[in-house]
Design goal:
By secondary structure, the protein is an alpha/beta fold. Helix content is about 20%, strand content about 25%. It contains four helices and eight strands; from the N terminus they run βαββββαβαβαβ. The strands form two sheets. Strands 5-2-1-6-7-8 form a six-stranded parallel sheet. The longest helix is centred in the last third of the chain and has 14 residues, at about 150-165. The model has no long low-confidence stretch (mean pLDDT about 95).
Length: about 200
C-alpha cells in the first residue's frame, strides 16, 4: 500500500471513450485490468467522469457547418470540436462496466457547464474555474497524484499539468493510459508534462 499522501486519479474510463463509443480511444478498454489492479495500492482513489449536457458547446453538432476535430475560438481560447459524447445520463457517459468503481471515494464530474469544456480533473478549460478536486485532495492530506486513464494527450495530460501547477507531485503511468494523438498532440503533451516536472512511467 502506498503512503496515504498519494492518490490515484482515474480519468474518464467511460463507454464513449472505449472501443464502440462515440469518441473511442484505440485500445482504451485495454488499460482497465492494470487500472483495477492499481486501486488496491492507494488509500485515496478518485474517478473522473465527462458529464456533458445535450448540445454542449464543445460538440461539433452545436456549430452548424463545422465538423469534429476542427478548432474554433471560444471566449476561453481555442477549442477542439468533438463528436457528441458523454451526454449526462447516457450509456456513453457511464463508466465502462469492466472498471472497478467500488474502491473510489470520490467521483468528479466535469464538463457539465454548457458553455465551457473541461479536460482537466482540476479546472475547466478556462484554467481557473475549479472542479473542487484540489480542495478534496488537500483535505485528505494528499501531496502527490498518479494519473491513469483516457486520453493521455487531453484529459490525463491537462490534469497532470494542473496538478503540477497546484504543487502536487505528479506521475503519469503511461502503461495505464491511451491517447488520441490528434495532429501530434501526444508528443506535444508528453513534452509539456516533462517540462512541468511530471514523472512519466511505462
Amino acid at each position: 500500500m502506498r503512503p496515504a499522501t498519494e492518490a490515484l486519479i482515474v480519468i474518464d474510463i467511460q463507454n464513449d471513450f472505449c472501443p464502440g463509443g462515440a469518441l473511442a480511444v484505440a485500445g482504451g478498454d485495454g488499460i482497465i485490468p492494470a487500472v483495477n489492479a492499481m486501486m488496491d495500492d492507494f488509500a485515496c482513489v478518485v474517478l473522473t467522469q465527462d458529464w456533458h449536457p445535450a448540445g454542449h458547446s464543445s460538440f461539433a453538432a452545436s456549430h452548424p457547418g463545422r465538423h469534429p476535430y476542427e478548432s474554433v475560438r471560444m471566449p476561453y481560447g481555442d477549442q477542439t470540436l468533438w463528436p457528441t459524447h458523454c451526454v449526462q445520463g447516457s450509456h456513453g457517459a457511464a463508466f465502462h462496466p469492466g472498471l472497478r468503481t467500488g474502491p473510489a471515494q470520490m467521483v468528479i464530474r466535469k464538463g457539465f457547464r454548457p458553455g465551457i469544456d473541461s479536460y482537466s480533473a482540476f479546472f475547466e478549460n478556462d484554467r481557473s474555474t475549479p472542479t473542487g478536486l484540489d480542495g478534496y485532495l488537500r483535505s485528505r492530506g494528499v501531496l502527490s497524484v498518479t494519473l491513469v486513464g483516457l486520453a493521455t494527450d487531453f484529459c490525463v495530460g491537462f490534469s497532470g499539468l494542473d496538478a503540477a501547477r497546484l504543487g502536487f507531485g505528479v506521475t503519469v503511468d503511461l502503461v495505464a493510459c491511451r491517447g488520441i494523438d490528434l495532429n501530434g498532440s501526444m508528443a506535444g503533451m508528453l513534452g509539456q508534462l516533462r517540462a512541468a516536472g511530471a514523472r512519466l512511467e511505462g
